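Lab notebook page, bench 4
Experiment: in silico fold of construct C2
Operator: M.H.
Input chain length: 352 residues
Purpose: comparison with the prior construct
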Amino acid sequence: MRYLQRTAVAGAIALGATVSGQALAVNDEPLTDKWAPSEWGAGDMAGSVNRTTPEMVLEAAKLIKLSRVATLGKVYQQDAPAFGSRGWRLTIPGLPTGGPFGPQEVVYNDEYLATEIGQIGTQFDGPGHIGVVTSKGHFFYNGHFLEDADVTTYGLGPLGVEHVAEKGFVCRGVLLDGVAYHGGPLPIPTSRERSDPGIVTDEDIREMVERQGLKPIDKGDCVFLYTGHGDLWHPTDWDSFSPEEKQQRTAKFNSGEPGYGLSGCDYLAERGIILWGSDTWGSEAVGPGFGGENDQPFECHLKMMTKRGIWNIENLDFSRLLADKAYEFLFVWSPLKMKGATGSPGNPVALY
């Protein structure tokens, strides 16, 4: 059945199937460059978190020096900035929802939530989030295709986030302070040049590590970038802004973003990290035409996640870490075990 489904898709593409009158373009790089199977084998569904060892966990735990805890998640609320048409709608039906019960008149409240729960606010991008149109179908991490029989609109099967959540992340967290490095918030890129201050390259990463007095980025690390762009969605003052100011900030927040360029992402991948992220909605540089260091939109997403299984977490709040200059810490995070979901919301924790 899987073979027949995929063959049908490949045949349609080969015959010039159209969408809105245009022939479907394909990119067979994942096939010709053998992006699958991954380094963890054809059956793997978790990706880079497989690199974690007990020894790495013990070493990361030694980074707790001050016995302090910082949560890195932002508040989920209806008027928070969101990418594209995504939205968060939470209601409390009934007020109270149920009751009263018994002689003590007990009541309770529930909430009803309508949202892209895996791709809103502080969000983790899982295996089913980013793929490529190839001549054999829609290719995702480790050679799974949307046309496979075990992938449906009711859940992505082997691409579901629960397979990553089963392992979770416990790692050495590294915070790269791009604002201190640049001397102010990084701007949205206006070019594709490596010298554009909104594009964080491999050279920039090495320089930040050295300036901040950090040990080199190593296998099993989780590496995060503070650009300052995320402060448009201020972690503490958002509710004090007028509707007009919120609208202006949201428009600028979503108009593009500074972040990792492809050379920076490739460098992190070569170092063997297991997670990357930022204070922005995409973590990578997004300039004109949604491109970064190259014309391809979201190329870091593609090459880190679809190709290598190195996942991404976005819209993080680094306020506490920055105030304490805590650039190395024990990072703990696990996505929610939502069967078949593309990603997960959540509230990661840093201990230092």
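Observations: Confidence is low (pLDDT under 50) at residues 1-19. The chain is about 20% helix and 20% strand.
Next step: discuss at group meeting.
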